[in-house]
Design brief:
By secondary structure, this protein is an all-alpha fold. The chain contains 4 helices and no strands. It has a single domain, classed as DksA, coiled-coil domain (Four Helix Bundle (Hemerythrin (Met), subunit A), Up-down Bundle). It comes from Rubripirellula lacrimiformis.
């Protein structure tokens, strides 16, 4: 399948995911409102409610970040620059876009950015046990 057709299918996938996230966020927010209106029984119930509120809040935050990334990707599609790496300008491989449809950079540029920001690691985790010594018996 040509790249343009694959890109159009990815846009359709992004739109479906955006719509699903909108519905999920509406449900999450209404659930939070309902929970805040209910009275709690004792201190243990209040603590459990507090933990649940925090988890729901984090979920809403993650969904909101993904929704923003999806909306940005749809905007890039409408502007004709979807699928191009913002770092080097080369086309992002379709396999990366299929895995992360709202990706803005290719693997090489992502790695460079992570290394610049200090979030990259010099440890090759897939090789970490190759040179490990065996514990003495």
């Amino acid at each position: 399948m040509p790249r343009n057709e694959s890109i159009k299918k990815l846009r359709d996938q992004l739109v479906r995911r955006r719509d699903a996230l909108h519905r999920a966020l509406e449900g999450d927010l209404s659930l939070l409102r309902e929970l805040h209106q209910e009275k709690t029984g004792d201190i243990l119930d209040a603590a459990a409610d507090s933990v649940q509120d925090e988890l729901n809040s984090q979920l809403i935050e993650a969904e909101s970040r993904e929704l923003t990334a999806i909306n940005d990707a749809i905007t890039r599609f409408d502007q004709g620059c979807y699928g191009d790496c913002e770092g080097c300008g080369k086309p992002i491989p379709l396999t990366r876009l299929r895995a992360i449809p709202y990706a803005t950079d290719c693997i090489d540029c992502r790695r460079k950015a992570e290394n610049r920001n200090g979030s990259g690691s010099s440890v090759l985790w897939n090789r970490v046990f190759d040179s490990a010594e065996v514990d003495p018996v």
